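Reminder to self: tokens first, then the designed residues, so the page reads top to bottom the way the pipeline ran.
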């Protein structure tokens, strides 16, 4: 079965609403293989979001993602990469379809509740960065 990576972002953990997202994922029949609450250090955050290094928002993105604890989940399901992106919705919550996680919980482009891998290759890279000790 395909595996992918989902991350619950700092504002959701601070608001103690991570349980709602985990419940939503389970009700949509994903298996959770690994789950880890942690804080990014700068080096790991820059590596994780390396694809955005040249973007004007990169500095803000790194400051934000290192501002508090996040929860990384390794998920499994047939077609997991596409399936989780369907559930997550558009990057900008203002453009996310009703019923998606970002529609329900996202507040802004930066505080958009979750991150999901966009391909099997990204999932492999992101899982290796987050579950480095395991
Ligand atoms: P995510 O899926 O975590 O991947 C990169 C993140 O950068 C994205 O979600 C947004 O939260 C953020 N992002 C993308 N575009 C912009 C932008 N134009 N301004 C600020 N943040 C952005």
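Designed residues (134 positions):
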């Amino acid at each position: 079965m395909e595996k992918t990576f989902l991350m619950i972002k700092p504002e959701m953990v601070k608001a103690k609403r991570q349980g709602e997202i985990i419940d939503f994922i389970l009700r949509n029949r994903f298996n959770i293989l690994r789950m880890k609450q942690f804080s990014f250090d700068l080096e790991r955050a820059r590596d994780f979001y390396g694809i955005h290094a040249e973007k004007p928002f990169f500095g803000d993105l790194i400051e934000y993602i290192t501002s508090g604890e996040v929860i990384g989940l390794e998920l499994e399901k047939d077609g997991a990469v596409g399936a989780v992106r369907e559930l997550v919705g558009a990057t900008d919550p203002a453009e996310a379809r009703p019923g998606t996680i970002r529609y329900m919980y996202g507040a802004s482009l930066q505080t958009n509740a979750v991150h999901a891998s966009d391909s099997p290759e990204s999932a492999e890279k992101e899982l290796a960065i987050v579950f480095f000790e395991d």
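The pocket of adenosine-3',5'-cyclic-monophosphate is lined by residues 52, 57, 61, 91, 109-110, 112, 115 (CB under 6 Å).
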